[in-house]
Write a structure and sequence with these properties.
Helices cover about 30% and strands about 25% of the residues. With about 230 residues, it is α/β, with parallel strands linked by helices. The chain starts with a helix and ends in a 5-residue tail after the last strand. It has a single domain, classed as Vaccinia Virus protein VP39 (Rossmann fold). The chain has an eight-stranded mixed sheet, with helices on both faces. It is globular.
């Protein structure tokens, strides 16, 4: 059962046995649970991220696309959304939802957060909603996020209970500051969740090469276009 999975996750966390791993597609029904819409719905969460029309956005750990449709709507036809997940089943569902909603320009790619298959300076904004705690090599993933962000680009994070992989705000701040990000805004929601927006430190970006077209590695697989 889905809630049993959550309970087991918290039990393992209590005893120090919780290992970072992706949320299983077999239990994906919880991702669309009605109470999530009430407290952590896409419009409420993404409003704090301040996405702009025309932006190029990478969503890491898009899951079944719960936040992807609202993201695509906010950046508009002039923007570009790339959804990345390590599980192909999750990506197929995200891909299906985006195509059904008419967002045919969105892309979906299967890859690891620790090895992003994109050029440096490729994105204006990276989204990580309830996913950082699932990545085993979190420090490496943050380095990769900083690499693919353009100078002054932003990383927006949302952590939500009862996710057993929940990262406390204090822990997030320590990790992101150590990785060269500067906090811009943080909002708490009903004591159950928070959203936090961070900017890449431009001084850390000044020596990087200019953006160039996307590249994919042997560890990435892109889904076909809508049809």
């Amino acid at each position: 059962m889905t809630w049993g999975l959550v309970a087991r996750g918290w039990w393992d966390r209590l005893w120090g046995r919780l290992e970072p791993m992706p949320y299983p597609f077999a239990e994906a029904t919880l991702l669309d649970f009605p109470l999530r819409t009430l407290f952590f719905g896409p419009a409420r969460v993404l409003a704090t991220f301040d996405l702009k029309p025309g932006q190029r956005v990478l969503e890491i750990g898009s899951g079944t696309g719960y936040y992807s449709l609202e993201t695509a709507r906010r950046i508009g036809d002039g923007g570009r959304l790339i959804c990345l997940d390590i599980q192909r089943e999750m990506l197929l569902e995200t891909h299906r939802r985006l195509c059904a909603a008419g967002f045919e320009g969105a892309g979906s790619i299967q890859a690891r957060g620790e090895d992003l298959p994109f050029a440096a300076n490729s994105f204006d904004h990276v989204l990580a909603v309830t996913v950082l705690g699932e990545i085993p090599g979190r420090s490496q993933a943050l380095r990769e996020i900083r690499r693919v962000l353009r100078p002054g680009g932003r990383l927006s994070v949302s952590e939500q209970l009862p996710d057993p992989d929940f990262i406390t705000l204090g822990s997030l701040r320590r990790q992101l500051r150590a990785s060269g990000f500067v906090e811009e805004a943080t909002h708490c929601h009903f004591l159950l969740a928070y959203t936090s927006v961070w900017r890449v430190d431009k001084s850390e970006q000044s020596r990087r090469e200019p953006a160039y077209p996307d590249r994919t590695s042997g560890h990435a697989a892109e889904l076909r276009a809508c049809r």
